[in-house]
Amino acid sequence: MLKRFLIVLAGLVAAATVSAQDAAKTEWKEGQHYFVIDPPVAVATPGKVEVLEAFSYACPHCAHFQPYADQIKAKLPKQATFVYLPVVFNPSWEPFARAYYAGQSLGVLDKTHQAIFDALHRDKKPLRSIEDIAALVATVGVDEKNFLSTAKSFVVEGNLANGQKNLAAYGIDSTPTIIVNGKYRLNAGSAGGFPQAVDLTGWLVAKEIAGAKK
């Protein structure tokens, strides 16, 4: 039994080593795996390498990518930060962008972010308006009236306008898309999959940090 265990353990170690070696051998190529944004877009957090995910709660691919976004956040060094950009590709997506900005403004994204994804894509709830979303977030402890008034505020209107402006500047035409430090754009298609997008994002972050030290 011990001998069999040691053989299995050795196999797992070898497999992990091969996997790590394969990751190290990956040659990320500009214009193939990621794209340069020219001119670069100023980041919202000067002094930090900003990783931005352009997403929508209405996007099923974004819901599937969320665990990988969490991986990216967990792996970021202290010199980097992670932010979201809710995009509006059509009028039906606008309530979801409002919901994100309202949650951000109220400091309740820890309650609302995953709850909205789950309601739409796991529970198949018909969330079609900001009122529908406000009623949903009330079930996770957020004041419905306050959330709704914030979602319709001038501040959120400004966020929506600025978001659409940045959408064009980044050259984003699909979700989810990752932007690294306002300079590089990638998605799962260019990277080769969700796990690869996590690895490529980490590589670009490291590249930016190393460049800043020169």
UniProtKB/TrEMBL annotation:
Compartments it resides in: Periplasm
UniProt keyword Iron, yes or no = no
- Kindly list the cysteine pairs connected by disulfide bridges: 59-62
One GO cellular component this record assigns the protein to is: periplasmic space
Where do the Thioredoxin domain residues begin and end?
14-142
Q: Which CDD domains match?
A: DsbA_DsbA
Signal peptide residues on this chain, from the entry's feature table: 1-20
Question: Mainly resides where?
Answer: periplasm
What keywords does the record list, in alphabetical order?
A: Disulfide bond, Periplasm, Signal
The UniProt record lists the keyword Disulfide bond: yes
SUPFAM superfamilies cross-referenced by the UniProt entry: Thioredoxin-like
Q: Which family does it belong to?
A: Belongs to the thioredoxin family.
Specify the protein name: Thiol:disulfide interchange protein
Q: Please spell out the taxonomic lineage of the organism that makes this protein.
A: Bacteria, Pseudomonadati, Pseudomonadota, Gammaproteobacteria, Lysobacterales
